[in-house]
Design brief:
20 helices; Rossmann fold; six-stranded parallel beta sheet; alpha/beta
Length: about 500
């Protein structure tokens, strides 16, 4: 099949979160399965990895001129290749729109007020480029609100054009909380007829909603885990679109993300103290733990369990729970290594905890890719008590590295982490620890019972850690599982074949 994937970010062309990992991992896996795969992303020259060949970028230049609202905006499409693959990458270049100090927001933290304009241009540029380059895709796969206009353009403007007659679209929701909402007059920036601004299609609660647009116009809708697919059809997790998703539930399914094992693999990782695999995990983990303790200034004690956490520091990720059980964390005797940034309240809390207990708690506010890998390799356990988590990648990275995750049983965490209950341990199904948080209605609010439950779970982890035989069973279960993109790519391939077959039947 000819498959075009579209995303507002992808490694190594610009990244703010897990979407970038998915947008690079999935096309590589699909290409390995024999498909002709292309990827479209904006050209962020300030964020693109310097290993990318700029000569190749500028040897290929397709001009783009588009009417966006009352303006005519000129740009171009450049071309390179996704590293370690034969996937062509087309970069939509428009310096005024994309050459900025952030991808979605300024360095000061505010969302760009012209994001609707920026990504309307991006979507229309993609469709024009596909037409100009005669890519004739079987499937166009859109990801999140930034590409939500693409299924609508295909359905209303391009479906009857040569090269698009049999093209079908897939829309993937990575995080329903981000919907690309803006005031209704931004409808003119999309170039779509105002007749589509109605409650069944592009309008939501009086606003233009680009994620809803993608959902209702796409041929199939996916999200990043089966549990999250069910959750977002409820008021608790539906972010105002649960009724829409229930309406389209027959076309909605959850496919768990994979992990890029070229980047996250303890057997080949260049960032860690000693590379290891399942056969050398005992020596490898011990060396990586000692090196991490030394690097972070923690007591170099092999028998003390070390919990790692690489995360945005927000209440959604469970930092409000950690703040509430500060005393229990220290009294547990365990060590903790934190890496990330986020809300000032939680940055201050974590930094204070580390300064008051420097031999037990380490913290780096910000991001360091190498340190993220060393925390995954050097930690015994990994904290991920998220209130919601559409898929989650760090729990998979952790298990690949033989690091046992402790998670809240939501979204992709529920689909990947099997609790170390007596029954699951007896059947060798367990690979971590999980617990349920108190159900909420509407907006999330802190519940001290959740914090108490987290403290209890940490003690469960510590108790299991003190039993080397059981602990090794847990981490071996994780490291031996296939967390790569291979199983996920096979499921996407099956979905693509389904809608391509339907398109051929319609044409016949």
């Amino acid at each position: 099949m000819k498959i075009v994937l579209t995303s507002s970010e992808a490694v190594p062309f610009g990244k703010t979160g897990g979407l970038a990992d998915v947008a690079s991992g999935l096309p590589k896996a699909l290409a390995k399965r024999g498909h002709d795969v292309s990827l479209f992303v904006p050209h962020y020259p300030q964020f693109i990895d310097q290993s990318i060949s700029h000569t190749r970028l500028f040897d290929f230049n397709v001009p783009i001129n588009l009417a966006i609202g009352e303006e005519t905006i000129a740009g171009s499409v450049l071309k390179t290749v996704l590293p370690d693959s034969n996937v062509d990458v087309y970069l939509v270049d428009q310096p005024e729109l994309f050459d900025r100090d952030g991808i979605y927001q300024s360095a000061g933290g505010g969302q760009y007020t012209d994001n609707c304009k920026r990504f309307a241009f991006f979507c229309r540029a993609i469709m024009q480029a596909i037409d100009t380059l005669q890519l004739c895709p079987d499937v166009i796969h859109a990801n999140d609100w930034q590409t939500g206009l693409i299924p609508a353009l295909l359905a209303t403007e391009y479906r009857e054009q040569p090269g698009f007659e049999k093209t079908r679209s897939v829309m993937t929701i990575h995080n329903l909380a981000f919907q690309g909402r803006s005031w209704h007059f931004d409808m003119q920036l999309t170039g779509m007829d105002w007749k589509y601004f109605n409650w069944e299609q592009m309008e939501s609660w009086g606003e233009l909603n680009l994620l809803k647009t993608g959902i209702v116009f796409a041929d199939k809708i996916t999200t990043v885990s089966p549990t999250y697919a069910a959750e977002i059809q409820t008021p608790q997790f539906g972010c105002g679109l649960d009724a829409v998703l229930r309406h389209w539930s027959d076309d909605l399914l959850g496919i768990i993300n994979g992990s890029d094992t070229d980047l996250w693999n303890p057997a080949t990782d260049p960032h860690i103290a000693l590379r290891y695999d399942a056969s050398t995990i005992v020596a490898g983990k011990a060396k990586c733990k000692q090196a991490l303790q030394h690097e972070l200034g923690l007591d170099e004690k092999a028998h003390v369990p070390l919990f790692g956490m690489v995360s945005r520091m927000t209440d959604q990720k469970g930092f409000d729970l950690l703040e509430h059980i500060e005393t229990q964390l220290i009294d547990s005797g365990a060590q903790f290594a934190f890496l990330g940034s986020g809300e000032p309240q939680f940055e201050t809390f974590i930094a204070k905890l580390a300064s008051e207990h420097p031999k037990q708690v380490a913290a780096k506010i910000g991001f360091d890719n190498g340190l993220a890998h060393r925390i995954e390799a050097g930690s015994d356990a990994y904290l991920m008590p998220s209130y919601f988590e559409p898929c989650g990648l760090n729990q998979m990275y952790s298990m690949q590295y033989g690091t046992v995750p402790l998670v809240c049983r939501v979204g992709g965490l529920a689909d990947t982490v099997v609790d170390a209950s007596t029954e699951n341990m007896a059947t060798n199904q367990a690979n971590g620890f999980s617990f349920d948080r108190i159900p909420q209605t509407g907006e999330y609010t802190f519940n001290p019972q959740d914090a108490d439950q987290l403290a209890f779970q940490i003690e469960r982890v510590i108790d299991m850690y003190r039993n080397p035989e059981l602990w090794n069973q847990l981490r071996m279960r994780g490291i031996l599982q296939d967390w790569s993109w291979t199983p996920s790519a096979a499921k996407f391939e099956e979905l693509y074949k389904e809608i391509v077959s339907a398109a051929l039947e319609d044409a016949a």
